[in-house]
Amino acid sequence: MPFRAVLFDFGNTLFQAPDAAALLAEEGVEQALAERLWQEIWDRAMTPEELAKGRDLSEEAHRRHWMELLSTAEPHAPGSAPRLYDAVMRVESWMPYPDTAPVLAELHRRRVAVGVLSNTAMPLHPVLAGHGLDRHVQAVVESYTLGVEKPDRALFEAACQALGFPPDQTLLVGDSHIADGGGVLAGLTVLLLPQVPRGAERGLGAVLGLT
User: Fold this and answer.
1) How far apart are CA 102 and CA 190, in angstroms?
2) In the structure, what pLDDT confidence band is assigned to residue 115 with cuts at 50, 70 and 90?
3) Which sequence spans correspond to the domains of the chain?
4) How far apart are CA 82 and CA 197, in angstroms?
5) Backbone φ/ψ region at 111: left (φ over 0), alpha (ψ -120 to 50), beta
6) Please, which of 9, 52, 96, 186 could form a disulfide with 156 given CB 3.0 to 4.6 Å?
């Protein structure tokens, strides 16, 4: 049966962060090195060890752990870590992918319940509202408000409850096999999207064939 509800991850699924490598290049780091540095920072940030540190349980923890990660760039661009954090890691600076708005609007037209489920230390509703997307979203579930992070099944279960549909009728769409893949343990079907070039559509149209 087609899914009656869809839960979307926020970062790298519906929204994309600013180009951190470009910001490092503006700090005087050679472009190729800037790209390598940022990829190393991001890859480390997405490891099970880093995800288990609880950085998305409070804004203070988020800043502390990300500043540690961003310190990798300091030898190449002194003083860049706090500037990178404020420019890249705060959710209000993130932008929706080109296909985010049309896919959410179409799901809304089909009367498919839509939720956003994220490991985040900051409120997402103002960001969604700022881009006119809040009218398509019935529930926003954030790790810092519940005190639990993906891949803990409790967060997925709370999101399904907020949407009003059981896990077997809900599709989860994300980008991380570690964090979002935890939805399988809660009984959800999980669609993981591969990375795309900056500025490209995210591939969210695949969801429309499943609802």
Assistant:
1) 21
2) very high
3) 5-15+94-210, 18-93
4) 26
5) left
6) 186
Distances (CA, A) of 129 to 6, 88, 133, 142: 19, 19, 6, 16
Distance between CA 11 and CA 179 in Å, rounded?
A: 12
Instruction: Give the tens place of pLDDT for each residue, 140-182.
Output: 999 999 999 999 999 999 999 999 999 999 999 999 999 999 9
Characterize 155-166 residue by residue with b for buried, 16 or more Cβ atoms within 10 angstroms of its Cβ, and e for exposed. Answer: bbbbbbebbebe
Q: Do residues 21 and 31 lie in contact, with contact meaning Cβ atoms separated by under 8 Å?
A: yes
Are 8 and 99 in contact by the 8 Å Cβ rule? The answer is: no
Whole-number Cα distances in Å, 29 to 20, 73, 85? 11, 9, 17
Burial class (CB in 10 A: 0-12, 13-18, 19+), 13: buried
The pLDDT confidence band at residue 1, using thresholds 50, 70 and 90, is: low
Backbone torsions φ then ψ of 115, nearest 5 degrees: -130, 160
User: How many other C-beta atoms are found inside a 10 Å radius of the C-beta of residue 60?
Assistant: 10
According to the model, what pLDDT value does residue 2 have?
A: 83
Which 3 state secondary structure label does DSSP give 63?
helix
Check whether the bond before 151 is cis (ω within 30° of 0). yes
Asked if CATH classification 3.40.50.1000 holds for the domain at 5-15+94-210, the reply, yes or no, is yes
Query: Angle at which helices 59-70 and 31-45 pack, to 10 degrees?
Result: 140
Structure tokens at 164: 């009003």
